[in-house]
Write the structure tokens for this entry.
Amino acid sequence: MDKPNAAHRKGGAITEIDPDLCTVRARVPAGELTLDQLRGITRIAEKYGAEGVHLTTRQTIEIPHMDPTDLEAIAADLTANSTPVGAEHDEVVNIVACPGTDRCKYANVDTLTLARTLDERFFGREEPMKVRITLTACPNGCNNALLNEIGIIGRVLPERITGICTGCGSCVEYCREGAIRIKNGISVLDLDTCVQCGICVKSCPFNVIKAAHRHYQIRVGGRSGRHPKIGQELVMVEKEEQVIEVVDKILYWIYRRGRGKKLLADQLDEMDFTKIKTEIQQAFQISVE
């Protein structure tokens, strides 16, 4: 293969087992495509001889077995389709998100809108190492946000308001954490056990359990792979704009303090994570107790 072009350098083109072929990765924020974009990718794949595409774990689409000499043309076609070549090197890569309140009955927050905003603001930002950002709308964590460099989880703090609780036990039945019990004929919440999934708020037929507030838990330093590690809790914030501001500060901190060729999870201590955590919490932290 001749010298790599921009798509190779950015990680949007991946050399295959056969070094004379490559896989081209398209950028698909939150895994959301319009039908026109989907049809466009099909046309592009067919144009350059692909027999199919591959859906990745980070919600992107890859076109396999491409001729590297076609990369510039493929990149131009993908850009015209509003699905430009993606990234997978030392930078912020494709933002992943679950469906959120758009269509999931368990969701606490709108992940898709926030993911698009984060993508517009941060995708492709150069960092010392690859930075994966994943949003999940509830603690069920269907897309493993805890195992990313930056994980954002939508949560709800439940509150039993004054009202007529019949002691029907619906909330007890739905709570998977055993954080609710019926005492003296009414429901009692154990917030120390509660993971703030919000299912009790949705399940109470008499609206006696309400959401005190919805918020985002932001975690840092998770990883998957051979040695998975859950990210450490950094801060909890209440508004989307605060999430964006915190992510910006995290990325700046990583850029200034991180070292290349080493995952973020393996260098939190030497990057003085405790200090940045204290600074961000003092500026943004909300009480959820």
Notes: Residues 4 and 68 are 8 Å apart (CA to CA). The chain has two domains: 6-80, 96-284. The chain has eight helices and eleven strands.
